[in-house]
Amino acid sequence: MNEIPEKLFISTSSPHIRDSDSIPKIMWTVNIALLPALFMAVYFFGIKALWITVLSVIAALLTEGAIQKLAKKPLRITDGSAVITGILLAFNLPASVPWWMPIVGSVFAIAIVKEVFGGLGNNILNPALAARAFLLASWPVEMTASWVPPRDGTISGISAITSATPLNLLKQSAKIITAPENYEPSQIQAAQDAIATLSNSYTNLLIGNVGGCIGETSVIALLIGALIMFYRHVIDWRIPLSYIGTVAVLAWVLAGSEGLLTGNWIFHILSGGLILGAFYMATDMVSSPISARGHLIFGVGCGILTVAIRIWGGYPEGVSYSILLMNLAVPLIDRYTVPRVFGEVKKNA
Q: What is d(CA 3, CA 343) in angstroms, rounded to the nearest whole number?
């Protein structure tokens, strides 16, 4: 008779896949990936960019710790998620905002958007973007009226037209060109010169020597961080590729001042917050779809809304609102993109 071994294997239900990744490891990888963009923000916009970021991160950490303490939950402020929220919120603010604004935004992001819904893993919106929308609705002047020109550069490069960002300049110029009867000849010429200048501003857009929010201007720095996240398998390619690809196609077809198929799609990719939004905020694991098909649908939806707002909306940029609106559609997307269950046996009628 065979003896029963002292240690028996424990049999449990599938799945049995194990991974060394953890929430803190993923979150801190994203934080590291954001450092190149933070460095460029400080270089172009000065020490105030770092000051805004530090205030935002500290406020996010203190708010999360206080709420978890009051709710008698385990403190999890070291997992890096609140730090991401603080950095991304700061990246979505102009360098000219008063010191209290990143603090108010971070408190709103953590307390209202994240912890009210149960904390990490339960929020339905991206906290940083929701806080930006809250600040823009509450203090629109501070968020849009005055912009700090980048180091060794100007806000727009065109002094004849008052503009904050390249996208805003493009939108104002296109408005003048499409309705020349409402403007003076000097304004029309300035608008044409502005569009010509923007068409040749790819170098400044790549390195970040343009006006804008402190963390969205340097495309090269953001792409370096994206490569880090891809290397660490933190993000999936489907959302950023479908998002950016949709913006490129629709901008080429619809965004030209000379009619269809004349839009400068490269400019629309490099300017504004598209790269920041596509790689760092639309890919948020909590507020984005689960399935691969859902990722593609989500990215395409973000792209359509972004171009629609840029062309026909009241704001020159639509990245933040497009991602927030698609966040609300995630439950519906998940419902209709449920992966096939392998091994399922259908009961005979």
A: 36
